[in-house]
Write a structure and sequence with these properties.
The chain is mainly alpha-helical and about 100 residues long. It has a domain of about 60 residues. Helices cover about 50% and strands about 10% of the residues. The chain has a three-stranded parallel sheet. α3 links the parallel β2 and β3. The model has no long low-confidence stretch (mean pLDDT about 85).
């Protein structure tokens, strides 16, 4: 298949923790992606609860305001330079 990633829409991410079917849909999308040999990415992650759920369920990538709002190029470069990726990686592993 001519794609590398399967994206989980923000509308499903918003409902994580609400007790609805969105969590099952997210798990299924991640599983389908992995079964196809692809990676899953979730957009619109805004809370620790959402990030933890996605990481726990094998989502390969997450993006959203929980990590940062969109930044102009120069601010993005400064943001990246200030990150302690070793500590961030350790924190991410603690979530799992």
């Amino acid at each position: 298949m001519p794609f590398d990633l399967i994206k989980i829409d923000k509308s499903f991410i918003d409902m994580i923790g609400s007790g609805g079917t969105s969590e099952n849909i997210c798990r299924t999308i991640i599983r389908i992606g992995h079964e196809l040999g692809k990676m899953a990415i979730a957009e619109g992650v805004e809370s620790h609860e959402q990030a933890a759920f996605l990481i726990e369920n094998g989502c390969n990538f997450v993006q959203g305001y929980f990590y940062s709002h969109p930044l102009p190029w120069d601010e993005f470069l400064e943001f990246v330079q200030q990150q302690d990726f070793h500590t961030q990686r350790r924190k991410a592993l603690q979530i799992v």
